[in-house]
Design brief:
With 214 residues, the chain is of the alpha/beta class. The chain has two domains: 132 residues, Rossmann fold, CATH 3.40.50.2300; 63 residues, Arc Repressor Mutant, subunit A. Helix content is 53%, strand content 12%. Helix 6 crosses helix 8 and helix 7 packs across helix 8. The radius of gyration is 23 Å and the shape is elongated.
């Protein structure tokens, strides 16, 4: 995360619980309330998809592996195709560990076997929410940098790319066919519009968009 970017208010953490057993949904909801976490529960994958609009961050998925209709793993894979970055924990029954391992290879963060201990589940959920918060931080940083980049003129963007590659003003001037004074002015505008207080800060911003590798 870029230190100079404004702090944005994060949304309340939420755990999406998808399980066809009402007893499991109720028990997990109650458990999460004891640690001040909010749960949204769904009886099947389709019910979740019908309600799903975009990622709520920080958030994670707690999915039953085997449900009527779409399985928890199939739901996770469909969400990935939609661009979701929410980490998921798969709940499995006894003897399904090999299936859970395959799920983790597909990108699921972790799995837990039923019946599970409350603290074990809470530890996994807290870890998943931490991952979600980190992903959200990167996304917000990227959006902020992109917004600042949008204020640059095409020529200023060209100069920016040259700057973060460490080129001197006279070299930039030669390569772009400009005077050194013009490059200096563009450089000043870039620093102002990007709200960068130093060269190193400007470079950190452009790493977010991979411009420094251009």
């Amino acid at each position: 995360m870029i230190a100079s970017l404004p702090t944005r208010r994060t949304t309340e953490p939420v755990v999406f619980v998808v399980d066809d057993e009402p007893e499991v949904r109720d028990a997990v909801s109650l458990l999460l309330r004891t640690v001040a976490l909010r749960a949204q529960t769904y009886p099947n994958a389709q019910a979740f998809l019908d309600d799903y609009k975009k990622d709520h961050c920080p958030a994670c998925l707690l999915l039953d592996l085997r449900m009527p209709g779409m399985s928890g793993l199939e739901l996770f894979e469909q969400l990935k195709r939609r661009g979701s970055t929410m980490p998921a924990i798969i709940m499995t029954g006894h003897g399904e560990v090999s299936v859970a391992v395959r799920a983790m290879k597909a990108g699921v963060q972790d799995f837990i076997e039923k019946p599970f201990k409350d603290q074990a589940l809470l530890d996994l959920i807290q870890a998943a929410l931490a991952v979600s918060s980190q992903v959200r931080g990167h996304a917000l940083a990227r959006a902020e940098v992109e917004a600042r980049m949008a204020t640059l003129s095409p020529r200023e963007r060209e100069v920016l790319v040259q700057i973060v590659q460490g080129k001197l003003n006279k070299v930039i001037a030669y390569e772009l066919g400009l005077s050194v004074r013009t490059v200096e002015l563009h450089r000043a505008h870039v620093m102002e519009k990007m709200q960068a207080q130093s060269f190193s800060e400007l470079v950190r911003m452009t790493f977010v968009l991979d411009l420094a590798k251009a």
